[in-house]
Amino acid sequence: MRFLVIGASGAQGGAVARRLAAQGHEVRGFSRSGKVPDGVRPFLGDLGDAERVKEAFDGVTHASVVLPMVYDTPTVSAYVRHVVDGARAAGVRRLAFNTGNRLPAAATGVTAFETRRRAAAALLDSGVPAVVLRPPLYADNLLAPWVAGPGVLRYPLPAGVAVPWLPHADLGAATAAALVRDGLEGATLDLGGPDAVTGPELAAMVRPGLRYEEQDVAEFAAALALVAGPGTAAEVAATYRWIRDAGDFFDAPRDVEERLGIRLTPLRDWTAAQHWGPA
């Protein structure tokens, strides 16, 4: 088996590439920067370049796809078309597509959701054996410097919203399993850790006595814009506004561990292993 990881320089794709390399697989990491995890062979390219994408798929048997944080509908459609063409030409045996977020059941008008919904549908309809993975929020987001401060944990969700936070390492394990486990072709799997916790419950896991505070979404977007750019930050902020207004959105999946043959990390164990800085 030979694996292609698209987006291997990012946090999500990097977690997948590390997991596959640790399992002893031959892994090719497609990225624009060439900065891939140890044990992964870099392949420089851009998803907008159809020929380069096809070259990346040459000789590949399995592929993990994470799209960049781009939400322009025609651009994302072109990216997906290039992936499908490359995977078909290579005769890929299994493709795992990570939507990057949990998708609401009905259309929302939020492009960060809807471009991924269309991408998932296009890949499942492409004729390439595919699995769609829909994660919730990533536990690693909580390590951003503006989240856990002295006495308070701040995140742009109402206190009562329960989230089955998923560490990036568990995303890597889930994706690696989805690529090779029998009987998953055509499946759409909602990922999520074994516990769904509210904001105050999360704060207590991080540090006893820590208070949870709902961060203003505009303030969150301003901080994100410094690292991701204002356009991307605005689109991501729109997803948080939608989740805020929807209320109970995240479910803790009941059978994903069994279907993938893995064990996901309890959130309490993950938080205990992190360095949260001064109290």
Structural class, judged by helices and strands? alpha/beta
Rounded to an integer in angstroms, the radius of gyration calculated over CA atoms is 18 Å
Helix content: 40-55%
The proportion of strand residues reads 15-25%
List low-pLDDT spans: none
Biggest pleated-sheet summary: 7 strands, parallel
Q: Shape, please? A: globular
The topology string of helices and strands comes to: EHEEHEHEHEEEHEHEHHHH
End-to-end span in angstroms?
47 Å
The counted number of beta strands is 10
Spatial sequence of strands, sheet with the most strands: 3-2-1-4-5-6-9
Summary?
This protein is an alpha/beta fold.
Salient structural properties:
279 residues, alpha/beta, seven-stranded parallel beta sheet, three-stranded mixed beta sheet, 10 strands, globular
Describe the structure.
The chain has 279 residues and is an alpha/beta fold. It has helices spanning 11-22, 50-57, 73-90, 111-124, 168-180, 199-206, 217-228, 230-246, 256-260, 267-272, and strands at 2-6, 26-31, 41-44, 62-66, 94-98, 130-134, 148-149, 152-155, 188-190, 211-214. Strand 5 (94-98), helix 4 (111-124) and strand 6 (130-134) form a beta-alpha-beta unit. Helix 2 (50-57) packs parallel to helix 3 (73-90), helix 3 packs parallel to helix 4 (111-124) and helix 7 (217-228) packs antiparallel against helix 8 (230-246). The N and C termini lie far apart (47 Å).
